[in-house]
Amino acid sequence: MTSNTRLEYLAQEQIDKFHRDGYLVVSGFLDTDTVTALLNRSKELLTEFDINDHPLTRFTTGDDNHVGDDYFLTSGDKIRFFLEQDVLDQNGKLTRPKEKAVNKIGHALHELDPLFRKVTLENQHIKRLVRDLGFHHNPLALQSMVITKQQQIGGEVPEHNDSTFLYTDPPSALGFWFPLEKCTAENGALSFLPGSHLTAPITKRFVRLPTGGTGFEQLPVPADCSGTPPLTGGYVLECCEPGDLVLIHGSVLHKSEKNRSSSTRFAYTFHMIESPPYATYDEKNWLQPTKAMPFSRILT
Ligand SMILES: O=C(O)CCC(=O)C(=O)O
Protein backbone atom coordinates (compact mmCIF):
# COMPACT_ATOMS: atom_id res chain seq x y z
CA MET A 1 0.00 0.00 0.00
CA THR A 2 1.22 3.52 -0.76
CA SER A 3 0.48 6.76 1.08
CA ASN A 4 0.11 10.33 -0.10
CA THR A 5 0.91 13.45 1.88
CA ARG A 6 -1.05 16.05 -0.17
CA LEU A 7 -4.69 15.03 -0.02
CA GLU A 8 -6.98 15.90 -2.93
CA TYR A 9 -10.39 14.58 -1.87
CA LEU A 10 -10.42 12.74 1.47
CA ALA A 11 -9.48 14.05 4.92
CA GLN A 12 -6.81 12.15 6.85
CA GLU A 13 -9.43 11.16 9.49
CA GLN A 14 -11.47 9.44 6.75
CA ILE A 15 -8.43 7.52 5.55
CA ASP A 16 -7.61 6.49 9.12
CA LYS A 17 -11.23 5.39 9.67
CA PHE A 18 -11.17 3.29 6.49
CA HIS A 19 -7.99 1.54 7.62
CA ARG A 20 -9.35 1.01 11.15
CA ASP A 21 -12.88 -0.19 10.28
CA GLY A 22 -12.34 -1.68 6.81
CA TYR A 23 -15.00 0.53 5.26
CA LEU A 24 -15.89 4.19 5.01
CA VAL A 25 -19.10 6.06 4.24
CA VAL A 26 -18.39 9.24 2.23
CA SER A 27 -21.56 11.35 2.29
CA GLY A 28 -22.81 13.04 -0.87
CA PHE A 29 -20.16 11.71 -3.26
CA LEU A 30 -22.49 11.80 -6.29
CA ASP A 31 -24.73 14.80 -6.97
CA THR A 32 -28.51 14.42 -7.21
CA ASP A 33 -28.62 14.73 -11.01
CA THR A 34 -26.07 11.93 -11.42
CA VAL A 35 -27.95 9.67 -9.00
CA THR A 36 -31.23 10.30 -10.85
CA ALA A 37 -29.57 9.61 -14.20
CA LEU A 38 -28.03 6.33 -12.96
CA LEU A 39 -31.32 5.21 -11.44
CA ASN A 40 -33.26 6.05 -14.61
CA ARG A 41 -30.69 4.30 -16.80
CA SER A 42 -30.84 1.19 -14.58
CA LYS A 43 -34.61 1.11 -14.96
CA GLU A 44 -34.30 1.61 -18.73
CA LEU A 45 -31.95 -1.36 -18.94
CA LEU A 46 -34.49 -3.47 -17.07
CA THR A 47 -37.22 -2.39 -19.49
CA GLU A 48 -35.08 -2.94 -22.59
CA PHE A 49 -33.70 -6.43 -21.95
CA ASP A 50 -35.41 -9.29 -23.72
CA ILE A 51 -36.62 -12.05 -21.41
CA ASN A 52 -37.49 -14.27 -24.37
CA ASP A 53 -33.87 -15.08 -25.21
CA HIS A 54 -32.75 -15.08 -21.57
CA PRO A 55 -31.58 -18.39 -20.03
CA LEU A 56 -33.42 -17.53 -16.76
CA THR A 57 -30.15 -17.57 -14.82
CA ARG A 58 -30.81 -16.74 -11.19
CA PHE A 59 -28.26 -15.15 -8.90
CA THR A 60 -27.50 -17.61 -6.11
CA THR A 61 -24.64 -17.13 -3.66
CA GLY A 62 -24.55 -20.23 -1.43
CA ASP A 63 -21.35 -22.26 -0.87
CA ASP A 64 -22.82 -25.24 -2.73
CA ASN A 65 -24.97 -23.56 -5.37
CA HIS A 66 -23.29 -20.33 -6.46
CA VAL A 67 -24.32 -19.27 -9.95
CA GLY A 68 -21.83 -20.60 -12.49
CA ASP A 69 -23.48 -21.17 -15.85
CA ASP A 70 -22.17 -19.82 -19.16
CA TYR A 71 -24.41 -16.77 -19.05
CA PHE A 72 -22.71 -15.80 -15.76
CA LEU A 73 -19.16 -16.90 -16.68
CA THR A 74 -19.15 -14.90 -19.93
CA SER A 75 -20.75 -11.76 -18.48
CA GLY A 76 -17.47 -9.99 -17.61
CA ASP A 77 -17.52 -7.98 -20.84
CA LYS A 78 -21.29 -7.63 -21.20
CA ILE A 79 -24.38 -6.14 -19.59
CA ARG A 80 -26.44 -9.06 -18.39
CA PHE A 81 -29.38 -9.64 -16.08
CA PHE A 82 -29.45 -12.10 -13.17
CA LEU A 83 -32.79 -13.03 -11.66
CA GLU A 84 -33.86 -13.28 -8.03
CA GLN A 85 -34.04 -16.81 -6.62
CA ASP A 86 -37.80 -17.15 -6.16
CA VAL A 87 -39.24 -15.72 -9.35
CA LEU A 88 -39.95 -18.87 -11.34
CA ASP A 89 -42.95 -21.15 -10.96
CA GLN A 90 -42.71 -24.94 -11.25
CA ASN A 91 -43.00 -24.66 -15.02
CA GLY A 92 -40.03 -22.31 -15.16
CA LYS A 93 -42.20 -19.26 -15.96
CA LEU A 94 -41.65 -15.85 -14.36
CA THR A 95 -44.13 -15.11 -11.59
CA ARG A 96 -43.71 -11.32 -11.85
CA PRO A 97 -42.80 -8.74 -14.52
CA LYS A 98 -39.16 -9.10 -15.62
CA GLU A 99 -38.36 -5.55 -14.39
CA LYS A 100 -39.26 -6.69 -10.88
CA ALA A 101 -37.59 -10.10 -11.14
CA VAL A 102 -33.95 -9.05 -11.62
CA ASN A 103 -31.52 -9.29 -8.69
CA LYS A 104 -28.63 -7.57 -10.44
CA ILE A 105 -27.24 -6.28 -13.73
CA GLY A 106 -23.57 -6.97 -14.49
CA HIS A 107 -20.65 -6.99 -15.09
CA ALA A 108 -19.31 -4.43 -17.59
CA LEU A 109 -21.59 -1.43 -17.11
CA HIS A 110 -18.49 0.66 -16.37
CA GLU A 111 -17.03 -0.18 -19.80
CA LEU A 112 -20.08 -0.35 -22.04
CA ASP A 113 -22.63 2.14 -20.78
CA PRO A 114 -21.58 5.80 -21.23
CA LEU A 115 -23.29 6.98 -18.04
CA PHE A 116 -21.81 4.30 -15.79
CA ARG A 117 -18.45 4.74 -17.52
CA LYS A 118 -18.47 8.47 -16.73
CA VAL A 119 -19.10 7.80 -13.02
CA THR A 120 -16.43 5.08 -12.86
CA LEU A 121 -13.55 5.36 -15.33
CA GLU A 122 -13.93 9.03 -16.24
CA ASN A 123 -14.62 10.45 -12.79
CA GLN A 124 -11.95 12.86 -11.48
CA HIS A 125 -13.32 12.54 -7.91
CA ILE A 126 -12.74 8.78 -8.03
CA LYS A 127 -9.17 9.32 -9.22
CA ARG A 128 -8.48 11.86 -6.46
CA LEU A 129 -9.98 9.61 -3.81
CA VAL A 130 -7.98 6.64 -5.07
CA ARG A 131 -4.74 8.62 -4.92
CA ASP A 132 -5.58 9.81 -1.39
CA LEU A 133 -6.43 6.37 -0.11
CA GLY A 134 -3.20 4.89 -1.47
CA PHE A 135 -4.73 1.42 -1.29
CA HIS A 136 -3.36 0.38 -4.69
CA HIS A 137 -0.28 1.30 -6.68
CA ASN A 138 -1.97 0.92 -10.06
CA PRO A 139 -5.65 -0.02 -9.68
CA LEU A 140 -7.66 -1.75 -12.39
CA ALA A 141 -11.44 -1.69 -12.74
CA LEU A 142 -12.58 -5.30 -12.54
CA GLN A 143 -16.37 -5.40 -12.63
CA SER A 144 -19.51 -3.36 -12.04
CA MET A 145 -23.11 -4.12 -11.10
CA VAL A 146 -26.45 -2.57 -10.36
CA ILE A 147 -27.99 -4.44 -7.44
CA THR A 148 -31.73 -3.86 -7.52
CA LYS A 149 -32.81 -5.43 -4.19
CA GLN A 150 -36.43 -5.69 -5.32
CA GLN A 151 -39.24 -4.87 -2.93
CA GLN A 152 -40.41 -7.83 -0.80
CA ILE A 153 -38.19 -10.40 -2.53
CA GLY A 154 -34.76 -8.69 -2.82
CA GLY A 155 -32.57 -11.50 -1.48
CA GLU A 156 -30.36 -11.47 1.58
CA VAL A 157 -26.61 -11.19 0.80
CA PRO A 158 -24.98 -13.40 3.44
CA GLU A 159 -21.84 -12.45 5.36
CA HIS A 160 -18.83 -12.41 3.05
CA ASN A 161 -15.73 -10.52 2.08
CA ASP A 162 -15.21 -9.44 -1.50
CA SER A 163 -11.65 -10.78 -1.90
CA THR A 164 -13.08 -14.31 -1.67
CA PHE A 165 -14.97 -13.66 -4.91
CA LEU A 166 -12.55 -11.22 -6.57
CA TYR A 167 -9.30 -12.88 -5.65
CA THR A 168 -5.78 -11.64 -6.28
CA ASP A 169 -2.55 -12.81 -4.67
CA PRO A 170 -2.17 -11.01 -2.31
CA PRO A 171 -5.83 -10.03 -1.84
CA SER A 172 -6.44 -6.48 -3.09
CA ALA A 173 -10.14 -5.99 -3.89
CA LEU A 174 -11.67 -2.62 -3.08
CA GLY A 175 -15.41 -1.99 -3.49
CA PHE A 176 -17.12 1.29 -4.35
CA TRP A 177 -20.82 1.03 -3.48
CA PHE A 178 -23.28 3.85 -4.26
CA PRO A 179 -26.86 3.72 -2.99
CA LEU A 180 -29.14 5.14 -5.68
CA GLU A 181 -32.06 5.04 -3.23
CA LYS A 182 -32.28 5.56 0.51
CA CYS A 183 -31.06 2.47 2.41
CA THR A 184 -32.82 1.53 5.63
CA ALA A 185 -33.05 -1.36 8.07
CA GLU A 186 -36.25 -2.44 6.28
CA ASN A 187 -34.99 -2.43 2.69
CA GLY A 188 -31.64 -4.16 3.22
CA ALA A 189 -29.01 -1.53 4.04
CA LEU A 190 -25.46 -2.89 4.25
CA SER A 191 -24.00 -3.80 7.61
CA PHE A 192 -20.33 -4.30 8.49
CA LEU A 193 -18.20 -5.98 11.11
CA PRO A 194 -15.75 -3.13 11.76
CA GLY A 195 -12.11 -4.19 11.94
CA SER A 196 -12.78 -7.68 10.58
CA HIS A 197 -10.47 -6.97 7.61
CA LEU A 198 -7.61 -7.15 10.13
CA THR A 199 -8.74 -10.33 11.88
CA ALA A 200 -10.64 -12.45 9.35
CA PRO A 201 -8.27 -13.95 6.79
CA ILE A 202 -9.35 -14.85 3.26
CA THR A 203 -9.68 -18.61 3.74
CA LYS A 204 -11.20 -19.58 0.40
CA ARG A 205 -11.56 -18.26 -3.12
CA PHE A 206 -14.34 -18.50 -5.65
CA VAL A 207 -13.05 -20.28 -8.78
CA ARG A 208 -14.02 -21.73 -12.14
CA LEU A 209 -14.02 -25.49 -11.67
CA PRO A 210 -12.03 -27.55 -14.21
CA THR A 211 -15.15 -29.70 -14.61
CA GLY A 212 -17.31 -26.65 -15.42
CA GLY A 213 -19.30 -24.28 -13.23
CA THR A 214 -17.95 -22.58 -10.12
CA GLY A 215 -16.96 -23.53 -6.60
CA PHE A 216 -14.65 -22.62 -3.73
CA GLU A 217 -11.00 -23.50 -3.21
CA GLN A 218 -9.57 -23.48 0.33
CA LEU A 219 -6.56 -21.23 0.98
CA PRO A 220 -3.84 -21.45 3.62
CA VAL A 221 -4.38 -19.03 6.53
CA PRO A 222 -1.90 -16.12 6.16
CA ALA A 223 0.69 -15.90 8.94
CA ASP A 224 0.04 -12.18 9.57
CA CYS A 225 -3.52 -12.92 10.71
CA SER A 226 -2.52 -15.02 13.70
CA GLY A 227 -2.15 -13.24 17.02
CA THR A 228 -4.44 -10.35 16.02
CA PRO A 229 -6.66 -9.33 18.96
CA PRO A 230 -10.24 -10.69 18.70
CA LEU A 231 -12.96 -8.27 17.67
CA THR A 232 -15.17 -6.59 20.22
CA GLY A 233 -18.63 -5.40 19.15
CA GLY A 234 -20.89 -6.70 16.44
CA TYR A 235 -22.28 -5.72 13.08
CA VAL A 236 -22.98 -2.03 12.41
CA LEU A 237 -25.90 -1.16 10.12
CA GLU A 238 -25.07 1.70 7.74
CA CYS A 239 -28.24 3.47 6.63
CA CYS A 240 -27.21 5.63 3.67
CA GLU A 241 -28.62 8.35 1.46
CA PRO A 242 -28.71 8.26 -2.35
CA GLY A 243 -25.37 9.52 -3.68
CA ASP A 244 -23.29 8.48 -0.68
CA LEU A 245 -20.27 6.30 -1.38
CA VAL A 246 -19.41 3.30 0.76
CA LEU A 247 -15.80 2.20 0.31
CA ILE A 248 -15.40 -1.49 1.13
CA HIS A 249 -12.04 -3.14 1.93
CA GLY A 250 -11.87 -6.53 0.20
CA SER A 251 -11.33 -8.35 3.49
CA VAL A 252 -14.01 -6.72 5.64
CA LEU A 253 -17.01 -8.90 6.54
CA HIS A 254 -20.31 -7.40 5.45
CA LYS A 255 -23.83 -8.46 4.50
CA SER A 256 -27.32 -7.18 3.74
CA GLU A 257 -30.70 -8.54 4.81
CA LYS A 258 -33.65 -9.34 2.59
CA ASN A 259 -35.64 -6.32 1.38
CA ARG A 260 -38.94 -6.67 3.25
CA SER A 261 -40.16 -3.18 2.42
CA SER A 262 -42.49 -2.08 -0.35
CA SER A 263 -39.83 -0.15 -2.29
CA THR A 264 -36.68 -1.12 -4.19
CA ARG A 265 -33.13 -0.45 -2.98
CA PHE A 266 -31.06 0.13 -6.13
CA ALA A 267 -27.30 0.48 -5.71
CA TYR A 268 -24.45 0.82 -8.22
CA THR A 269 -21.18 -0.85 -7.29
CA PHE A 270 -17.82 -1.47 -8.92
CA HIS A 271 -14.60 -3.09 -7.77
CA MET A 272 -10.92 -2.37 -8.26
CA ILE A 273 -7.95 -4.67 -7.87
CA GLU A 274 -4.17 -4.15 -7.80
CA SER A 275 -2.20 -4.88 -10.97
CA PRO A 276 1.07 -6.77 -11.52
CA PRO A 277 3.75 -6.80 -10.23
CA TYR A 278 2.01 -5.92 -6.93
CA ALA A 279 -0.68 -8.61 -7.24
CA THR A 280 -1.55 -11.41 -9.63
CA TYR A 281 -4.95 -12.22 -11.07
CA ASP A 282 -5.03 -15.74 -12.45
CA GLU A 283 -7.08 -17.86 -14.82
CA LYS A 284 -8.93 -19.62 -11.98
CA ASN A 285 -11.00 -16.50 -11.34
CA TRP A 286 -14.57 -16.66 -12.63
CA LEU A 287 -14.27 -13.31 -14.38
CA GLN A 288 -11.65 -13.23 -17.12
CA PRO A 289 -10.48 -10.19 -19.09
CA THR A 290 -10.71 -10.53 -22.86
CA LYS A 291 -8.45 -9.21 -25.63
CA ALA A 292 -11.19 -6.81 -26.66
CA MET A 293 -11.86 -5.72 -23.08
CA PRO A 294 -8.84 -5.90 -20.78
CA PHE A 295 -9.28 -4.45 -17.25
CA SER A 296 -9.06 -0.64 -17.52
CA ARG A 297 -6.57 1.33 -15.46
CA ILE A 298 -8.13 3.85 -13.10
CA LEU A 299 -5.14 6.20 -12.93
CA THR A 300 -4.24 6.64 -16.59
O1 LIG B 1 -25.89 -4.50 -2.24
C1 LIG B 1 -25.91 -5.43 -1.43
O2 LIG B 1 -26.91 -5.70 -0.78
C2 LIG B 1 -24.68 -6.26 -1.16
C3 LIG B 1 -23.47 -5.70 -1.79
C4 LIG B 1 -22.22 -6.40 -1.39
O3 LIG B 1 -22.17 -7.15 -0.47
C5 LIG B 1 -21.01 -6.17 -2.17
O4 LIG B 1 -21.04 -5.39 -3.14
O5 LIG B 1 -19.98 -6.78 -1.82
From TrEMBL:
Stored InterPro entries: Phytyl_CoA_dOase-like
Pfam families linked: PhyH (PF05721)
GO molecular function: dioxygenase activity; metal ion binding
Cofactor(s) of this protein: Fe cation
Keywords: Dioxygenase, Iron, Metal-binding, Oxidoreductase
Keyword Metal-binding: yes
Coiled coil: none
Assigned protein family: Belongs to the PhyH family.
Official protein name in the record: Phytanoyl-CoA dioxygenase
Native source organism of the sequence: Thelephora terrestris
Lineage: Eukaryota, Fungi, Dikarya, Basidiomycota, Agaricomycotina
